[in-house]
Amino acid sequence: MNSTEETESIETLIQYQYGFMFSKATFTACELGVFDLLESEGPLSSTTIAERLGTSRYGMELLLGACVALKLLRTERKDEQVLYGNTDFSSLYLYRSSPKSQSACMTWLSENTYAYSVHLTDAVREGKNQLEKFPGPKNVYDHVYRSEEQRRRFMDLMNCGWSLWGRDVIAAFDLSQFPNICDLGGSGGALAKECIYLYPNCKVSIFDLPEVVKVAKKHFVSEEEQRIHFLEGDFFKDPLPEADLYVLARVLHNWDDKKCVQLLTEVYKTCKPGGGVLVIGMVVNEDRCGPLLSQFYSLIMLLHTEGKERTLSEINMLLSAAGFKEAERKKTNTSQDVILAIK
Ligand code: SAM
């Protein structure tokens, strides 16, 4: 190794060693409301920020310094004082009320994924999720929705991603030939909103668990939205509604192959000839060595679900076991790929 290579590899080493602190400092600044305060009031001194957010001055000064080093905040000097302000990046993604805000995602990762990740070694040893180590129900969605507040937070989390990649994903195929779309496990309706925006003649029904539908109706989709409606049900137990196209967005990665085939078989049986299923989610490379985010997500799925991220061949095998013979994949410029299979 020459000296440039060695310097680079030490930098990589440091990032891997302290990567969790990149996340934790960002989560903490989000949780304390640093970006929200600075967005509404403009640049402030560390003393004022600490006072407004009810923290120690010393702790806040250290956190602000870390955020500047992470390029989440910038500094300016005014009247001998250092003032901290949001960068464009933080205003766009970390300020809670920005249309592209990922603040809900930060909260979820901090309170849930980060906590589960403490047990990653056990999950890898045992090859199964670690829900038993946490209070509350042990099956996946009873656990996720263990309280009213958790349910709402998870639905906020689900909506977050769509603000980043929703348009690209929904535009990957021309869906105008499917006037009635059913979004199975459609959560708070972010995908449904993208669909009706892009396809003026389509209607979307969101099929999800009853307690999710209640929250979605109350907080996420207004009653005036005539082209979106809701259906309560369990897609492993109840008959599926009629539709021209069924969407499964980030659903299959929650379940093992058997359950995925069960669900896709129901979709195939209910689907009319010419209709189809649109699978949206991350796809792992065939050699299983990337992309990095998909590999991370497979570990996250291992930690708290029954599923994993799959390769295209694996997804095609599930589709064909259910009866769908032909599937086409479109890559997008986002972490999510789209696969359309027609009956
Ligand atoms: N499709 C949404 C998206 O991409 O934003 C949400 C994906 S989330 C990972 C999985 C969804 O499946 C949740 O909304 C969950 O409530 C729903 N779900 C889980 N089990 C279900 C079941 N048995 N029947 C119906 N929906 C279910």
UniProtKB/TrEMBL annotation:
Coiled coil: none annotated. This is Acetylserotonin O-methyltransferase. CDD domains: AdoMet_MTases. Residues 15-94 form the O-methyltransferase dimerisation domain. Keywords: Melatonin biosynthesis, Methyltransferase, S-adenosyl-L-methionine, Transferase. Catalyzes the transfer of a methyl group onto N-acetylserotonin, producing melatonin (N-acetyl-5-methoxytryptamine). Residues 119-325 form the O-methyltransferase C-terminal domain. PANTHER family: O-METHYLTRANSFERASE CICE, PUTATIVE (AFU_ORTHOLOGUE AFUA_4G14580)-RELATED. SUPFAM superfamilies: S-adenosyl-L-methionine-dependent methyltransferases (SSF53335), Winged helix' DNA-binding domain (SSF46785). The lineage of its organism: Eukaryota, Metazoa, Chordata, Craniata, Vertebrata.
